[in-house]
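Subject: sequence -> structure tokens, single chain

Hey, anyone have a minute? Need the predicted structure for the following. Not urgent.
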Amino acid sequence: MQDAVVSNRPTDPTNGAGYRQSGAPTSVLTPSVLGTMLMCVDAIVIMGASYLAYLLWLQSDPYTDGSRCAVVTALGTIVALNCFGILRLYSVEMMTRPGTAMLRLLGAGALVAGILIALSYATKTSADYSRGWAGLWFMAAMAGMIVNRMMVLASSRLGWLDQTLSKRVVVVGEKDQIERLLKQLDVDGSNWVNVVRTFSAETSGEFDLAGLERCIRTDQIDTVVIAVPWVEEDWALKTLDAIYQFPVDVLLCPRGIGLSLIRPRVRYVADVPMLTLADRPLTGWRYVIKEVEDRVLATIILLLILPVLLAISVLIKLDSPGPVLFRQKRYGFNNQLIEVWKFRTMYHDRTDANAEQLTRRGDPRITKLGRWLRATSLDELPQFFNVLRGEMSIVGPRPHAISAKAGGLLYQEAVGRYAARHRVKPGITGWAQVNGWRGETETVEQIQRRVHHDIAYIEDWSLWLDLKIILLTIVTGFTGKNAY
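Reply:
Had a minute. Here:
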């Protein structure tokens, strides 16, 4: 690895070099995704090597039974991938240690060959396929997988994987604790751990909290490590409360850095045990699945509802003068402002761009057609274009206008961890909406219940939960007594 990538030395994020605005997860290619990709390539190599060996062996033994070879190939592929997984051949550490990786691969290959031979003799099928074909298959498969790993190692040496796999870390804590942690990281020689900056608190517990939030928001931070004796420190609790709103992993590194902590939520960063206090949502394959779900479903839905969109557009033009669409600034992923599209439901000269006055029953600003569009939620349909633009998801916490209030308080004032709902992209529909929490918010309790459902959705996300919410939205979610 290049020194710049393994560096654990704090850098100044204000120098303007190499930093990008944070608006989405830093990379789809995470260690788990890379490991799965490598596993898929191994499967292709093993099966391809079997077919190549079969074609070559036919020249000397034209009576080789292809169907029996196919059965053995399928069994061998399954056994090999499981053995490789158990031996951690798909971990990032093995991808960056050429000597260890190659020895372990050769050992795993020999183990797989031994298992297949033992199974063939135990089932008395050793004479059902050619040993010459099996030998060619084994050599070709091992050669292909060695080349596969050499390519990954070369990519690592050339720094091609640095940007996608490097963990950008910010360390917050007591000065002495931070220094011990940085020394430990240097000693362990971590791959792909880049401490971007540190924020130290003196004995008074004061440090630049606003600077920390700015660094997380603008410098593509993946992980925040809180290095304190324990989390009961008042300033640590305050810091954790502020960090929780961001889509980052939050780890606790207690004073006993060298201890082997036996906890279910322990994570190791460069062989240093740390307690996981919060997980970054939707990373790796979860992020890929969510993105594919959004783009594919949004495209299909837009094609299906295109006649409806055109009809509503014509009706809006006939109902009252003004544009068809209403654009409003709302909070999106990572608390960034996005422009949300809706069908215009108010008279053009009475629209409220910042939602300083929430709509109420019998609101005179709403047109006759707009009242029906709101009651059926059809005014939200243009937001599928926001999904295609990558600003929203089909399912997620609903985006709120910047000046929306409940009980006379701004939402972020009414709910302590309100911004935590922005750790994922906002959605057209959500868990709160299908549970009846939609429409106006007259009381603080109403917005608190919404936020509670939003955070529960983020913590419990799955593809099946999204499909359930979409189904509930189709059945019951487009109407409601509080929608006007």
